[in-house]
Amino acid sequence: MSFMASSRQTRTTWCSRCGASISAPPGARSVRCALCHTTTRVERRPQHNGGLHQAVGFIKGLLFGSPSQQPPPPPASSGSMRAGDPYRLPASYPRARGKKRALLVGISYSFTKYELKGTVNDVNCMAYLLGQRFGFPSDCILALTQEEKDPNRWPTKDNIRLAMRWLVEGCTSGDSLVFHFSGHGVQKLDNNGDEVDGYDEALCPQDFEDRGVILDDEINETIVRPLGAGVKLHAIIDTCHSGTILDLPYLCRISRTGYWQWENHNRQPDAQKGTSGGLAISFSGCGDSQTSAESNTTAFLGSPSTGAMTYSFIKAVESEPGTTYGRLLSAMRATIRDNGGESGIPGPIGSFFRRVITFSNAQEPQLCASEAFDIYRKPFIL
C-alpha cells in the first residue's frame, strides 16, 4: 500500500500524558499509548504540541542536522502580541506588566534514552529564588516544562519561540528580564561564517527530533537585539555546549588567580550581535566545546536532582549578597570544583534547596556579555 493511501486511513495524535506520537486506526475514538499506557481521545484535528518520539536517529540528528532549521511560524493562538503580527500568544501566558519578568524552561525528554532527571527541579528552584530573593512577581514568571497540564506551556520548539518573544515584548527602560534554560544543548556546523570556532550552539526543545533545534543565531535575534536602552537581560543556561549560546560579542576569560580579560567574538563587525542599547549578560554551564557527562545536568545523582550550573549560581548569589559579576563567576566555579562546597546555601532559601538537591559534578561556568565592563566593579543586580 502506498504512503498516500495509508495516510488517508490513519491519523496521528499525541499522548495526553507523555506527548508520544500515536497512530490511530480509521474511525478510532481513543488510543492507548504504548509508552505510558494512558488512553487519549482522538481529536478531529491532532493537537499541535510536537510530541516526543523515541530516540531513533538521535546521534545522527545531532551530527548532521534535523529535518528543518527554519520551520514556518508557530500556529496562531488567542491574544495577539501586536497589531498585524503573525505570532500570537496563548491566552494562558502571563500578561506581565511589571518591571521584572522571567522565562524558565526545563526539559526532561521523558521516555527517551537521553532523559534528564533534574530539569524541572531547576525551574522550580529558579522560580523560588527569583520570587523570594529578587522580588519577581509569580504572575510575571512563565515556566515551560513537560509537567505542565496546558499544552501551550510544554517546551516544544514553537512554544519556546513564542515564550522568548513574550519575554522581550514591550520591554522599556528599567525592565529586568531573566531567561533560564535547563536541558540538552548541541553544536552545529556554522553556515554563515559568524562563529570563531566554526560551530553554532543550539538548544534542544522537547520535539527537536521532528522540529529541529534552536540555534544561537535565532536566540540572539529574538531576545538580545530587541533590548532597548535601560533594559537588562540575564540568561542562566544549564546545558552542554552553552558557552556562547546567546551569540553575545564578548566572552570573559578568567583564571583561577582572578586575572580576567574579554575576548571579542564578533567575527563579522557588520553583523549586529549586540543589543539596541540595552545590556545582555549570560552565565552558562560550560564552554562551547564541552561534550562529556561532567557538563551535563544528568550528572547529579539521586532523586530529585538538579543541574550543576543552576545549583552553583544559586549558591553563589545567596552566599555573597551584593556581589560583583567577577566574584559571582569565581564563586560558581569554586562551588563546582569543590563538589558543591561544604557549607551549602545559607539561610531559609538554603533549607528549601537542601530538600531538593543532591550534588556531584565538575565543569567550568562561563560569562558572556553584549558589552565589556569591569567584572570586579560592576555589581550583580537582577
UniProtKB/TrEMBL annotation:
Q: What are the GO cellular component annotations? A: cytoplasm
**Top-level taxonomic group:** Eukaryota
User: To which species is this protein native?
Assistant: Triticum urartu
Entry similarity comment = Belongs to the peptidase C14B family.
Which stretches make up the Peptidase C14 caspase domain? 99-366
Q: What does UniProt give as the signal peptide span?
A: none
Which processes are annotated in GO (biological process)? proteolysis
Molecular function GO terms recorded: cysteine-type endopeptidase activity
User: Which residue stretches belong to region Disordered?
Assistant: 64-88
Q: Which residues form the Zinc finger LSD1-type domain?
A: 15-38
Name-wise, this protein is Metacaspase-1
One Pfam family, please name it. zf-LSD1
